[in-house]
Amino acid sequence: MASYIEPAPIKDKENPFESMMSRFDLAAQILGLDDATYNVLKTPMKQVIVSLPITMDDGAVKVFEGYRVIHSNILGPAKGGIRFDMDVNINEVKALAAWMTWKCAVVDIPYGGAKGGVTCNPRAMSAGEIERLMRAYTTAMLDIFGPDKDIPAPDMGTGPREMAWLMDEFSKAHGTTINAVVTGKPLVLGGSLGRVEATGRGVMVSAFAAMEKMKINPYGATCAVQGFGNVGSISAKLLHERGVKVVAISDISGAYYNENGIDITAALAYRDLNKGTLEGFKDAEKISNEDLLTLEVDVLVPAAKEDVITVENAPRIRAKLIVEGANGPTSAKADAILRDKGIMAVPDILANAGGVTVSYFEWVQNRLGYKWGLDRVNRRCDRIMKDAFEKVYTTAEKHNQSMRIGAYIVSIDKVAQTYQLRGRF
Ligand SMILES: NC(=O)C1=CN([C@@H]2O[C@H](COP(=O)(O)OP(=O)(O)OC[C@H]3O[C@@H](n4cnc5c(N)ncnc54)[C@H](OP(=O)(O)O)[C@@H]3O)[C@@H](O)[C@H]2O)C=CC1
Ligand SMILES: O=C(O)CCC(=O)C(=O)O
């Protein structure tokens, strides 16, 4: 057997790639994965690092570092978002790319996994500076991206506006409009109805599926959501609309708690009129992001960043159910603590897969030159999410493992079978 028999010891502050690998190792061991497939999958296929000199508004030239990692393309073209954030680094991007491989396999869509990013602080940049950066990043990745090769999408710090610039820059370089090179575009450029809401919608569908298993009545169940960007705000809105009492929300300015429930429509309107921040939001007590995580609630939705539920705070988590909107919010060491406490965690690679699922629908529509109605998009996404949830739940039960390891088993099994049937080894 391969070297994965003894999962690597995990240090206190977890490197996200090592954290991902420790779960992968356990699932690979349970599956009895062959050495060749194991060794191929533990290393990303391609890692690209570029330097991007940008003229800032004050005339100074600043050099940014950009990344794109393709973890695997054995299931189809690589797929994954682009993150603009100060914490972006190669280990983070490698982990996020691998998670995309597992995520696409869990929901059974024909894509491999990739991720990209630029180390920058978009909050401190003008729209013009962000546009120049996105266009420079696209130019640097012209040989990597392509509708049959690697298809980017939004992630933290990017959205439809940035995807429009990417599509335009790529199309200019090819002398023709190629909208299928990227998903998460504005609707008029070939974006799909439902994509903006899709990740939050998948979180909501996963939360309801898990509450049903745990016999938690969703009407009046309490919930705390960390992060109020694309994923967090839409998860909160959809849960609130369906009768869940969202008692806490947060962004980088802090967390806002009201035991009687927060009016999410009012919070969204406040954020949108307040330069995108919840700072100063009334009708709630201000608490810290750390305190939000340990509130006594039925459901906790971490939807901001990785590594927020750690070995330090896991013993104090009081939620019955965690539904991971963010990628990698729970460290590998914290997994065991949550499980011992009987907390169910619906893992990122399942819970937040609604986004890439509707990205897939967008790519299909672009290639067909056709548009689907919102009803069709939502119905198909919900069906895929529910089926994936059931498959992961059953697999976890069969192996007496957590939902997370169940999800890794489902994905790694699919990837391994693909290698075998394609006759690679
Ligand atoms: N967008 C998508 O379709 C998908 C995203 N994801 C994952 O979901 C997570 C969130 O992504 P997305 O919603 O797109 O990103 P956004 O940039 O839209 O939102 C991020 C949110 O997190 C908040 N935030 C950032 N840092 C912290 C912090 N240290 N403490 C508390 N809150 C913080 C931000 O606050 P502020 O606004 O004040 O900066 C913002 O509210 C990421 O892990 C991403 O990889 C997963 C699948 C798909
Ligand atoms: O929509 C996509 O293609 C990818 C979204 C993403 O980056 C993610 O699911 O983490």
From TrEMBL:
InterPro entries documented for this protein: Aminoacid_DH-like_N_sf (IPR046346), Glu/Leu/Phe/Val/Trp_DH (IPR006095), Glu/Leu/Phe/Val/Trp_DH_C (IPR006096), Glu/Leu/Phe/Val/Trp_DH_dimer (IPR006097), Glu/Leu/Phe/Val_DH_AS (IPR033524), Glu_DH (IPR014362), NAD(P)-bd_dom_sf (IPR036291), NAD_bind_Glu_DH (IPR033922)
Residue positions binding substrate: K79, K103, S359
Entry's Gene Ontology BP terms: L-glutamate catabolic process
Keyword Oxidoreductase: yes
Molecular function GO labels: glutamate dehydrogenase (NAD+) activity; nucleotide binding
Residues the record marks as active site: K115
Protein's UniProt keywords contain Glycosyltransferase: no
Signal peptide: none
Keywords, comma-separated and alphabetical: NAD, Nucleotide-binding, Oxidoreductase
Domain Glutamate/phenylalanine/leucine/valine/L-tryptophan dehydrogenase C-terminal: 192-423
Site annotation Important for catalysis: residues: D155
Pfam family, one: ELFV_dehydrog_N
Residue sites binding NAD(+) per the record: T199, N230
Family: Belongs to the Glu/Leu/Phe/Val dehydrogenases family.
Protein's recorded name: Glutamate dehydrogenase
UniProt source species: Flexibacter flexilis DSM 6793
